[in-house]
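Pipeline run #58 for the internal structure catalog. This entry was flagged by the ingest filter as a single-chain record with no existing model, so it goes straight to prediction. Upstream metadata was stripped on purpose; only the residue string is passed forward. Reviewer on rotation: M.T. Logging verbosity set to normal.
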Amino acid sequence: MRNWFPNFCFCEFDLYRYNKENFVEFAYPCIERIATEIKARHPDVPLLGFARDAPYGLEYLQRAGYDVMTVDAVMPGDVARNELAAAGALQA
């Protein structure tokens, strides 16, 4: 059973509490540290990041090292796909 499920780490951030400026100043350093620590301990495990109700956070999750950015209904998947760099992945 252990090999049946893929290994991944899902990190959900309730960013609707922050405007973009406060997010960058207060939340982003923590989000970046989480990604750095998980990647250091488990380099082969993909990180999925979900910026709940804060589409501006997708670019920052990608910058912090998350492998997959998930989106909710706040931003259509095609819009998110266009806004992310080609190196990122998108789960819509």
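catalog note: Residues 9-91 form one domain.
catalog note: The first helix runs from residue 20 to 41.
status: ready for reviewer M.T.
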